[in-house]
Every structure is written in C-alpha cells, then in structure tokens.
Amino acid sequence: MRLNLLFSIIVVGFVFTFESTCASRLSVSGNKLIFNGKTVFLSGVNFAWNSYGYDFGNGQYASNSKTTFEQWLKEVATYGGNSVRVWLHVEGDNTPSYDANGYITAPDRTGTLIPDMKLFLDTAKANNILVIFVLWNGALLRNQNTVNLFWDNSKLQTYIDKALTPMVKALAGHPALGAWEIMNEPEGLVYNNKPDANSCFSTVPIANSGAGWDGKWIPMKQIQAFINWQAAAIKVADPGALVTVGAWSQYSQTDAFSDTRNYFSDACLFAAGGKSLGKLDFYQIHTYATFGASAPFKILASNYGLTKPLVIGEFSSSCSGGMTIQQMYNYAYANGYQGAWSWHYAGGYCSDSRATLDLGMQQLKGKNTTSGLVNFPVI
Q: Fewer beta carbons within 10 Å, N or C terminal of the chain?
C-alpha cells in the first residue's frame, strides 16, 4: 500500500511537471489556425504603435508605452478580442542597435528590448490575448541603415545573429506569442513594373497596382530574400514559431487573378533566398476601399486559391466603401478568413476610433462555430 502511494505521488508529480512545461501555442493545420487543439479565429486589432518606433527597447517601454499598452490590452479583452498586431523596430531608428558602419551589434543599446517584449507578452497572456510582433515597416522606410539590409547580406546576417535570434530564443514558447511578422507592406519598397525571366521576381503583373509608393526601387527578389532569411532564422531558433508577412493587398498575395501574383509563396521565397525553412505559416492581406473587386470583404477566402490560413491584417470601416465595422468582422468570420485585425488603436489616417474598433470585436465576442473559437484561455 505504501508502495502504491509512492507510485501515485511520482505519477502525479510527473504529470504536473509535464503539463506545466507544455504550454499551448498557436499553430497551423491546413488552412486553419489552431490553439490548444481547437480551431480559432483571430479577432483583434492593430495597436501598431503608441510611440512610432519607440515603444520597445532602450528604456522606451517603461517611459512611453507600458501604461497605455496595458490599458489597451485590457480594453481589447473586455470587448472580446483575442489578438493584437504591434510594430517593433518599424524603420530602425530606435532598435536594433547599429554601429557606425551599419552593422547590427545588439537588439538595442541598453538591453531592455527583450525584457520589454517579455513584459508585454506577460500582460497579453494575463488578458488571454495573442501577440503578433511586426519587425519592420515597408510602407515607409527612411532609415538608410535599415534600407541597406536589403542590399548587403553581411549586414542582414548581423541583424539575424545579434538581434533576431536572441529575441526569438528568449521568447520561444511563450503562449502569448502568436507569430512573428517579418515586415508590414514590403510592397511599398519594391521596384515595380520590373521584368524578370523568373515569374516569382517579375513585378510586371502588378504594374498598375500602386506598389512601390515609397520610392526605394528594391527588386522583388531582394525583398523576398530578406523575408526568407529572417523567416528561416526564426524557425531555427524556435521551430514552433509562426511567421507571416503583412501584404498590402491581394495583388501580391495570390495567383488567382490576372493582375495578381503570390510573391510570398514557399517556392518564390526559396527561389530568392535559398533557405528551405524560410517560408510563411499563414498569409495576411490588408484591404481598403480602393483595392478592387478581388479584395477581401468582396470575395470568399477560398477564391484566392491559397493553401494556408488567411488573415485580413488591416481594414477600417472609415475606408471600407460603406461597410460598418460590425459587418466587416462578421464577413471575415463567416467567409473563410482565419482572422481580422482592424486599423488601428492609436488613430490616424484611414483609422476608425477605438470605440468603433471595440464594437467590431464585440460583434464576435463568444463566437464558437465551425469558423473558429474566438475566446479561449492563453495558458
């Protein structure tokens, strides 16, 4: 009897230890997003930033954004949201740490970036919210040190070795870490209408789309390699991590239409960068009123012909062409998309107010159908 009791204690201890070290994480199964064994729908918002480029690192979180972000996370949870998209380096003015020659030496100068991110994730976890960290911003990129990462692989490698890999390893397995997004709207930087014998690299199909608005003239192949290398590094440092890219529209994210091309397919990213692990786990499309008849909110997710989950990563009712925010969240949930993040909590051009965004999230609060579970414990 005493032997049986001892055996029971050992077994119970083993089970407790195993469960306590195996937290749930967001994962992918086919075209579905999974958390703790259940299909989920990522209903949330873009925080994007509180202090543009200066929310994390070099002591900025404590002084600039901690209180605001904590309030926002609680507000998102109150209205039924389960995920937020937040920008990290942005243009590279605050982080990472560049030396005088443009090589990266550390995540930041003072060593607070990773602890800041961990603190943000802990607060998100306490509110049952998943976080998508966006590394870079391609919609507007003025820091030449960051632009040079597309042109000099040795400099990009120092970012991977000195900043990205330490961040990913330090945060690996955190249940609130939903995904890493390599870049917001990289198409802003692209050399548009540039022919190439390889269809993955030719931007002729999107010549009339408006891509390349930031005037950096970076060939698509170099943008794809930039994504491929960082995605691969994330997978090496944390094999369970998910990776995405914030495509600015459907024009660059699907092969389904004559004026579109999926530049971020596994094949195209590998062709550009040569790293087999450097691929995306789920796709993401941004959409506003001027983005044509093939844009999200006008067609089913399945019409894009993609084999991975698809999230609508930016949208707003103020730039929707007439839909209410409630209609937009309902449409995304009911028509095969795996998530919806409205734009954006800090406000600004083409943004809805926080009160409006809250109404959108509230529309899906408590939903649990074949489209996915919306509210779930992040443990």
A: N
The candidate with the shortest Cα–Cα distance to 218, out of 338, 136, 158, is: 136
Tokens (6 digits) for 116: 């800041």
What b/e readout covers 227-244, taking b as 16+ CB neighbours within 10 angstroms? bbbbbbbbbbbbeebbbb
Task: Using the predicted structure, report yes or no on whether residue 22 has a pLDDT greater than 70.
Answer: no
Work out the widest C-alpha separation in the chain, in whole angstroms: 79
**Which pTM was predicted?**
0.93
* Digit-coded pLDDT (tens) for 107-150: 999 999 999 999 999 999 999 999 999 999 999 999 999 999 99
> What pLDDT was estimated at residue 291?
82
Q: Which two tokens stand for residue 63?
A: 């002084």
Active-site residue list: 185, 314
Instruction: Give the integer Cα–Cα distance in Å for 277 and 271.
Output: 12
Q: Is the dihedral of CA 147, 212, 134, 30 positive or negative?
A: negative
Q: Secondary structure of the chain: what % helix, strand, coil (to 5)?
A: 35, 20, 45
pLDDT in tens, 238-250: 999 999 999 999 9
Number of H helices, E strands in the chain: 11, 15
